[in-house]
Structures are given as structure tokens and as C-alpha cells.
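Researcher: Please predict.
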Amino acid sequence: MSPPKNRTVAIVGGGLIGLSVGWWLGRLGWDVTAYEGTRDITRSAGYAAAGMLAAQLEQEPGEEHLASLLAHSQRLWPSFRDALEADSGLSLDYQAGGTLMVATDANGLGRLRHDQAYLRRLGWDPQWLMAEEARRLEPWLSPQTLGALFCPSDHHVDPRRVLQALTQVLGPRVVYHASIVQLSPTPHGVEVIQSHGAKQSFDAVILAQGAWAGNPPLVPDLPPLDPVKGQALYVRMSTPCLSHVVWGEDVYLVPRHDNRLYIGATVEPLGFDTRITAGALYHLLKQGRLVVPSILEAEVTESIVGYRPRTLNDTPVIRPSIVPNIIMAVGHHRNGVLLAPWTCEVIGELVRRGDF
């Protein structure tokens, strides 16, 4: 059911989640305005993300409660991609070849066997590949490769292209350099107040500021958020290299369309530390070259830092606030790109029912 004419919604946050929700609600007939505190999209966790849609290999012990959610959003991604590409006219560089996790020593083989058993207990069925099979699939793998797990349903997308497509579709509906400092309930909605005093009233507000949502919190029931720093880098290969996402020990390599490889990513509980450190890049290159030795000959084109918005139990919070007419969409941690379609689905259903 479409909302009444001229029903308005403000999205607080101009990253991948905020823009995805804004685009989705616009398709449902809402009049959308998205507020972003800067014009620097590189601050977005989505800009720094690898773009893995890896419901299997992103699964970690202690997060079993997320397994069905990750799998559901993964299944939503092809239709989400088709709709966004149609609306924007841009390709998202969605690659459906699957994902490899490789071992280059005996300890790595043991880890793969453990991971295979764990994933099977969750209902997945990753395929075991012998070394020769893995290298036929990816000839640039190290000669030291001993075996691999192959997850054909774990895909990837270029999140920067997703952000570009969303920005193009929303166009002037995204207001930059607009820091929101207060949300004030009104008899018929919410008044959004910017730092320089400008005010505008909306029927509803969606909070989607990623790691910055608690800086400061705009509603009293916002859950505690811990910004988790991640460093990564891009290298450009002289010829096309990988055709799949490849995981090693404490590293993953994600191919892009222009011979670049994304090599990531550290996990550092350091808050909004902006430093790109030699130690982090050394670690990523050291671990990455065990998987694909030729990366040491590649040109380094970029080093990046991003901040994952983590809740206390690593579970995203997509629900109405106790403040009327406000919905929270926060805490996606390392799964923001993967969970974007599910987030849009949940919020679309909440606004359809008027349940906020």
C-alpha cells in the first residue's frame, strides 16, 4: 500500500544504509530528504568496505543467531541489484562466481576442516577442493596452496558503485553539510533541527548514521555503538588476476573490474582513530602474498580506513524508537553491504503498516 500523497520522511545519514533506505522509500512513494553531515563519502563505512555478500564465510562462532538473517538478505540481493541498476542506469559490478577460502600450511588445513564442519552444522554445504582443483579455479593462487573451501553462493559487489548509483538516483534529495543535532516530536511528526538552526518537519525520520549514530545520540533508546576501525588497501595488477573473492588467514582479496584487488581488513577496537599505519598494511600484504604471491609486484593505488558500527551483541537494530515517528537503522557492523536489502525490506514494512 502506497503512503498518502506528500508523506515525508527524513533520513539522517548519507552512507550506504541511509541512502539505500531513502531510495527504497522513494520507490514506495514517500517524499524523501537525506541529511549528510559532510560531503565526504569516504567517511562512509560502505566506501571502505570490501563488498562481500558472504553469508557463509562472514559467519563467526557466537553469531549463529544471525545466520538465517544473513542468508535471507543474501537471497534478496539479486532483485535489489536489478532494481537499483534499472533506476540509476549504472552497473554495480555484482559478481556471482563464489568465494574461496584457502590454506597454505597444515594449520590452515585444520582451520578449513573446522570451518567446514561449523558451516555444515548451520545448514550450509561448502565444497572441499583439493589443491589442484583450487588452482584450476584460480591459477594465480600460491603454489603452496594445500586445499580450499568453495562457497558458490557467496558473491560480491563493488560498494562504491552502489553508493554512486544511490547518490545519482536520489540527486538533490541528499542535503550535504547538514549536521542534525536535535529531533523534536510534533503533533504530526518530527522536527529535524540542524546545527546552524535550520528546521524542517517530517512525518517520519530514519536514523542511519552508521558508526556516528551515537555522536551524540538523537533518541534516548539508541543502543550503545562501538566504532571498530578497519584498514585496507587497493593494489592494481598488471593483468586480470582473481575472478573470485579469496580468503586466506586473517586476510581477504576482492577483485574489482579494473584489475584492482581490495586487500583487507584489520579489526581494531580503536574508535575513530584516523591513522593508516605501516604495521597494518605490512600485515595485510604479508598475509595476502601467502595466498597470491604476485600482489607484491602490484602498484599500491590506495590505502583506506573505515569504521564498522558494532552493537554489544553484533546484531543490527532496525526498529521504532520510543520517540514516536522515528525508526532506528543502526549497528550493521561488518555486514552493512550484505544487509542493505533486508534493512530496506524491514523499514518498508514498518512504514507500510504505520508501525513507528
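Model: The two ends are 16 Å apart (CA to CA).
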